[in-house]
Amino acid sequence: xxxxxxxxxxxxxxxxxxxxxxxxxxxxxxxxxxxxxxxxxxxxxxxxxxxxxxxxxxxxxxxxxxxxxxxxxxxxxxxxxxxxxxxxxxxxxxxxxxxxxxxxxxxxxxxxxxxxxxxxxxxxxxxxxxxxxxxxxxxxxxxxxxxxxxxxxxxxxxxxxxxxxxxxxxxxxxxxxxxxxx
Length: 182
Hints:
The chain has 182 residues and is an alpha+beta fold. 24% of the residues lie in helices and 44% in strands. The protein contains three helices and 13 strands, in the order βββββββββββββααα. The chain has helices at residues 128-137, 142-161, 168-181, and strands at residues 2-4, 8-10, 16-22, 28-40, 44-49, 53-56, 61-63, 68-73, 78-85, 88-96, 100-101, 106-117, 123-126. It has a seven-stranded mixed barrel with strand order 3-4-5-8-9-10-12. This is Nucleoside triphosphate/diphosphate phosphatase. It is an enzyme of class 3 (hydrolase). Belongs to the Ntdp family.
């Protein structure tokens, strides 16, 4: 991994990395064991995986069912997992902190809210009850709530405008690169 500053490391293209999500209280939430880095800059990490092992915080394990392209940004409070299925592209958007990375993994704090986008462009905000419960339990500051609500709006506009990970070209380009690297 390439060192950036004194606290952050960027994985190199073609490197196999882990992705780790945490909760606001610092507890580990979920780990994706193997993702191939397709692009790595100070602002964006794009990865690809297929049938990768996922380990939940309670120890449960499962394996993803289809190829996916993962998009992380250093400024936006969301990441996007684009799942390539026979009936089209499904996007699962996690509202959470911008990514950080070190020698161990690409990491972010998951703030419960998610947006699911269907192949026809319809999308739904999910897990608002879980968000409110964790917001009270873990005492999310009001500033985090404002940032997350703003990023739901940003993400909604990206989806409607077919920007970034929601464009057809994005999936075509990065999935082809993933097939070349795996």
